[in-house]
């Protein structure tokens, strides 16, 4: 499932980065497993490079230290840093969805095998990382300038775990 190193088209270390800021994710000891899971969920995704702990480093020599990967063109780095830090809801990854089918697909995959539903389109995956699975049209309702509609949409969303577009649209219509 995972790509081999170096990434097709060249060595990830020498290719110029397309984005200035990279999300860095701290895992206990399953960064490679998590990266492979994430690239299986999102299209146009790949492992770019796997770095290993050198002799004398805080991790076991030769064990996976970092995994550089892309999710639909967005660059991430996963670190096997040990049990010192855990994910919280203070940071989440928002997935823009065009329709209910896309919402349902991401929701099912990311809550599988121990993931947890939250509310308002939020969930935690089996690694504890928080995600917002959000239809693009939701933000539109809040930015249109109709405060009554925005309030109805907000109230509808607050009662949901996974966002149901038809219910949001019904609330918007009044």
Walkthrough of the structure:
The protein has 174 residues and is of the alpha/beta class. The protein has 2 domains: 1-85, Signal recognition particle alu RNA binding heterodimer, srp9/1, CATH 3.30.720.100; 92-173, Roll (2,3-Dihydroxybiphenyl 1,2-Dioxygenase, domain 1), CATH 3.10.180. The chain is 30% helix and 25% strand. The protein has a 4-stranded mixed beta sheet with strand order 1-4-3-2, covered by helices on one side. A 4-stranded mixed beta sheet has the order 5-8-7-6. Strand 3 and strand 4 (74-80) form a beta hairpin. The longest helix has 12 residues, at 100-111. The radius of gyration is 19 Å and the shape is elongated. The N and C termini lie far apart (47 Å). Residues 1-12 have low confidence and may be disordered.
At a glance:
By secondary structure, this protein is α/β, with parallel strands linked by helices. The protein has helices spanning 31-41, 100-111, 136-143, 147-158, 165-173, and strands at residues 23-27, 46-52, 64-71, 74-80, 92-97, 116-117, 122-124, 130-135.
CATH topology name of the largest domain = Signal recognition particle alu RNA binding heterodimer, srp9/1
Assembly context of the chains:
single chain
**Span between termini:** 47 Å
Morphology: elongated
Sequence of strands across the biggest β-sheet = 1-4-3-2
Number of domains: 2
Classified by CATH, the class of the largest domain is Alpha Beta
Helix percent band: 25-40%
Number of helical stretches of at least 4 residues: 5
**Cα gyration radius (Å):** 19 Å
Low-confidence stretches: 1-12
- Counting DSSP E segments of at least 2 residues, the number of strands comes to 8
Main sheet record: 4 strands, mixed
Q: What's the rounded overall pLDDT mean?
A: 91
- The CATH architecture classification of the largest domain is 2-Layer Sandwich
* Percentage of residues in strands: 25-35%
User: What's the order of the H and E elements?
Assistant: EHEEEEHEEEHHH
The helix-and-strand class reads alpha/beta
């Amino acid at each position: 499932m995972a790509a081999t190193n170096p990434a097709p088209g060249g060595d990830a270390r020498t290719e110029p980065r397309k984005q200035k800021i990279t999300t860095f994710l701290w895992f206990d000891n399953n960064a490679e497993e998590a990266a492979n899971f994430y690239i299986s969920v999102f299209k146009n995704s790949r492992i770019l490079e796997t770095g290993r702990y050198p002799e004398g480093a805080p991790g076991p020599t030769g064990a996976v230290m970092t995994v550089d990967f892309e999710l639909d063109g967005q660059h991430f780095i996963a670190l096997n840093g040990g049990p010192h830090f855990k994910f919280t809801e203070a940071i989440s990854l928002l997935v823009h969805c065009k329709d209910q089918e896309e919402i349902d697909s991401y929701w099912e995959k990311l809550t599988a095998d121990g993931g947890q539903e939250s509310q308002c389109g939020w969930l935690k995956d089996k690694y504890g990382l928080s995600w917002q699975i959000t239809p693009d049209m939701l933000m539109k309702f809040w930015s249109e300038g109709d405060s009554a509609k925005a309030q109805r949409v907000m109230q509808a969303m607050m009662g949901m775990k996974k966002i149901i577009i038809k219910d949001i649209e019904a609330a918007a219509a009044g």
